Amino acid sequence: MTLSFDPDTVQVPSGHHIGGKYVELPGEEITVLRPSDEKLMGVLSDGGADSVEMSVAAAKAALSKSKWATMAPRDRARVLFKFADKIEENAEYLGRLEAMGSARLVSGTITGDVVRTAGVVRYFAEYCDKLEGTVTATKADTLSFTKREPYGIVGAIVPWNFPLITAAWKFGAALAAGNAVVMKTSELTPHSLLATAQLASEAGLPAGLFNVVNGYGHTTGAAIVSHPDIQIISFTGSTQTGAAIMSLAALSGIKPVILELGGKSPQVITRNAGDLDMIATRVADSFMVNAGQVCTLPSRLLIEDCIADELTEKVIARTKKIKPGPTWDANTTFAPIISAKQLNRIDGMVQETIKQGAELLAGGARLEAVNEGNFYAPTIFTNVSRENIGFTDEFFGPVVSISRFADLEDAITQAQHPVYGLAASVHTTDMREAMHVVDQVEAGMVFVNQHGRDPEFTYTAGGFKGSGFGKDMGRAGFEAFTREKAVWINYH
């Protein structure tokens, strides 16, 4: 397969996807630009409350007519397996849409993101007949047990950095558990998810169970969170927006929320890490992937004193080997920033970090225009105080700081962040060191000798503290879309 393609030849879907079909609704126009060249990809409307109301009505009708929640679990699984097959059969089309509209490189979307999306759906389909309860101890003439049931309608709001795969973590689990879904795309990256919803219809998923609406957070997103018939909210995005969602969910009617939020993840490298050339490649690649637009980005490198100078030089050298370019070119190795607005935000924070006393070691500026797209140089700081914006705030770009530590206890102290606790990693061949960091660091995800997950589905994603609560993926990610009912039967 030749991965590179001409973006102007790809058909782009339009409208919202409600009740199993594309629907055009009036609303403020949303102009979607390709981040690689700032050219128009499509124009959609902000659906607002009307699109959410229509989706909820379609979801309620679908749940009632199809009996999705109460049908034989294996019958539900068969539909989801067909859905997964459809996704994989259309991997080239979905992968091209994903590459065009986001910062994801085509070298990783067709054979990576889309295939994994199909895998997520299959993984959760296997859980359909594995929803179990518990019988509790009682006296002889009484039966007490628990059973898990779907909520009904799930509201999901997904980010722009990994549009397809992050959405699949939510809709795959929610549908497998017997729910209907009303999902809002990011206004920056809507098209691949709209096309996926159409494939669900073609695979035989009852119309109305999976609805995708477009719009802004303060309009369509708020309408999802506050709708009384939406029983649970799942959101991935910034800590500030997560807090606003919690507040709105409480004010508009008590309902649970699942939040995966921002991070300021540490990456601890000890003297026992191993070959420094290998470590430099691993460490540098981990913060340059997707141009740093990753919630778990290891944006704080903590390096043991005795290897800090040498490793820092090697990491800086690695950042010089990037090949920025359009996402539809298979030779591109470094992605664009999602929008001009985000590029300006990153640069503003970088300049403020310098102003507040940090030392710039590499980068620190926009890259020379590539195809008129939004590109920012991999940026490395040192001497970033804990009061500096470079420590306190999330860049969501290819920006890291380097600090030194004297011993492992010092590293663990520096690794803790007063707000965030999403992810962390440690690089060492000494497993006693590794497990000490694993036990002590405050983070919902910890990696050893890598940073970031492999393409597996059993590993749960979620953070501590200001990085959220609840889990995506794994058994916990499936059970999150069910609620437990206690049953007491007296038969004497």
UniProtKB/TrEMBL annotation:
Q: Name one GO molecular function term.
A: aldehyde dehydrogenase [NAD(P)+] activity
Which residues does the Swiss-Prot or TrEMBL record annotate as the active site? 260
The answer, when asked if Oxidoreductase is one of the entry's keywords, is: yes
- Alphabetical keyword list: Oxidoreductase
Record-linked InterPro entries: Ald_DH/histidinol_DH (IPR016161), Ald_DH_C (IPR016163), Ald_DH_CS_GLU (IPR029510), Ald_DH_N (IPR016162), Aldehyde_DH_dom (IPR015590)
A Pfam short name: Aldedh
In which domain of life is the source organism classified? Bacteria
Every copy of the Aldehyde dehydrogenase domain together lies at: 27-487
Similarity comment: family membership: Belongs to the aldehyde dehydrogenase family.
State the name under which the record lists this protein: Aldehyde dehydrogenase domain-containing protein
Please name the taxonomic classification of the source.
Answer: Bacteria, Pseudomonadati, Pseudomonadota, Alphaproteobacteria, Rhodobacterales
